[in-house]
Amino acid sequence: MGSYRIAVFASGRGSNFQALVDAMANGSLGGEISVLVCDKPQAPVVERARKAGIDCFLFQPKDYASREDYEQEIAAELSKRGIDLIVLAGYMRLLTSVLVEPYSGRMINIHPSLLPSFTGKDAIGQALAYGVKMTGITVHFVDGGMDTGPVIAQHAVEILEGDDEASLSERIHTAEQQLYPEVVSWFTEGRITLNGRNVAIAAPVKR
Ligand code: GRF
């Protein structure tokens, strides 16, 4: 059996991408990041991929007539590489059925709130504005909706007296960088089963 092959999609800073790269380097990811797919060729995440020696599939949506058009090119690239899992890590675009359908059950996202609260953009700002005392992060399967797919893992982050967007974001990002590589390793170890909206995580096999 060949190695488990992962494509990461990202548009920005890439701190989650970096955490996945670091986990791959220390052997805890259990798979290989084959390619970074990025819709912003100038984004810092691209430089992180270059430094790590990971191939990049870069494109600019404005060069295409439709989302479906560029997603078809991405789909061809992924199938050429035999990708097992798509990991969205701050990819700031909604996906169409061109990618969502063939990768159903094999595409995951990380979102900075305890879903189903605070979907969409600026989830951290939304939580602060609402005044909740507890927020957090969610890793979930991607379906056709906005942050609506089955939940795989969540981690709560308390909102402290005096928190602002910067301080809360920092604690949320730290939690993300720990949780996301761990969840990806559950996939590479074949421990995840999806049953309707319910996700079961099998215990690790002792060696
Ligand atoms: C993260 O907060 C993630 O939850 C959201 O986008 C952000 C990406 O940050 N989907 P980074 O680019 O990984 O630093």
Pick out its properties.
binds 5-O-phosphono-beta-D-ribofuranosylamine, alpha/beta, 207 residues, Rossmann fold, two-stranded antiparallel sheet, 7-stranded mixed β-sheet, 6 helices
Description:
With 207 residues, the chain is of the alpha/beta class. The protein has one domain (5-201): Rossmann fold (3-Layer(aba) Sandwich). 34% of the residues lie in helices and 24% in strands. The protein has helices spanning 15-25, 44-52, 67-81, 97-100, 123-130, 165-188, and strands at residues 5-9, 32-38, 55-58, 85-88, 107-111, 134-141, 151-158, 192-195, 198-201. Helix 1 packs parallel to helix 2 (44-52). The longest helix is centred in the C-terminal third of the chain and has 24 residues, at 165-188. It is globular and about 50 Å long. The model has no long low-confidence stretch (mean pLDDT 97). Bound molecules: 5-O-phosphono-beta-D-ribofuranosylamine. 5-O-phosphono-beta-D-ribofuranosylamine (GRF) binds at residues 10, 12-17, 89-90, 110-112, 173, 176.
